[in-house]
Amino acid sequence: MEERLQKILSNLGVAARRKAEQLIAHGKVTVNGKVAVLGQKADPDKDFILVENRRIKVPRKIYIMFNKPRDYVCSLSDEGSKRSMMRLIKVKERIYPVGRLDFDTEGLILLTNDGEFANRIMHPRYEVEKTYVARLDRGFKRDDIRKLKNGVLIEDYQATARAQYLFEKDPRVLELTIHEGKKHIIKNMMRALGYKVIYLARIKIGPLYLGDLRKGKYRDLSKAEMEKIMRAIGLGK
Ligand code: URA
User: How far is CA 58 from the centre of its chain?
Assistant: First the structure.
């Protein structure tokens, strides 16, 4: 995709925006062998860009699924902490989690260095469903399934979820599907109905299943999975 050169250089961490503009203005940047001018656009995937004679390359795009164990934090700002899930992921490239799971939530989380991909998975407009398994402090009433479907008021917004019992004999365990990404949404919905979440795990994002990936382990998305998820977020061919 074509973008202004200074944006490309800052996105790739070559230089901050102002510094990138100066480099361009001082004739230190070339695109396909020609000195670039301020405001010029380029496509970092196709064009040959040099900054002070060094080739600027777009890092390989990475799409990983990870099974976050309970009691690990997702956020990059805690990366130094012993309980950071990023410590369990040994990838050279700089990647970041797509959305968050709470410290005490486990399960499927995607990691990438593709900003557009991450935005679309999180943005409610693309309606990428997320499915969770929750165990509650007591049996969930059948009537509350209907309430979740119609919407539960949390602070200033209505949250909806599709819910079903996972086991016939244990009404405390539910499978819940939402397409909102708001913080603590499941716990807040359950609290609004008078329940406490004892255990929470995400098992599915859009067409992607956690499957038998072990806790603390990760893997690249397969070609088939990539095709499915890209299609689901409108980036597919
Ligand atoms: N909803 C929650 O309450 N917590 C999570 O981690 C994810 C969804």
Answer: 20
Residues in contact with ligand 1 (CB, 6 Å cut-off): 101-102, 105, 184-187, 200
Pure H helices in the chain: 5-11, 17-25, 115-122, 142-150, 185-192, 223-232
Written out in words, the top-level CATH class of the domain with range 3-55 is alpha beta
Q: Per residue in 109-136, pLDDT tens?
A: 999 998 889 999 998 888 899 999 999 9
Question: Which atom of ligand 1 lies at the shortest distance from residue 197's CA?
Answer: 3
* Residue-wise pLDDT tens digits, 172-189: 999 999 988 789 999 999
As a CATH number, domain 63-125+216-232 is: 3.30.70.580
Q: Which residue has the least CA distance to atom 2 on ligand 1?
A: 184
Residues acting as catalytic residues: 102
130 CA closest ligand 1 atom index: 8
Q: Ligand 1 centroid vs 161 CA: distance in angstroms?
A: 13
Helix (H) or strand (E) holding 206: none
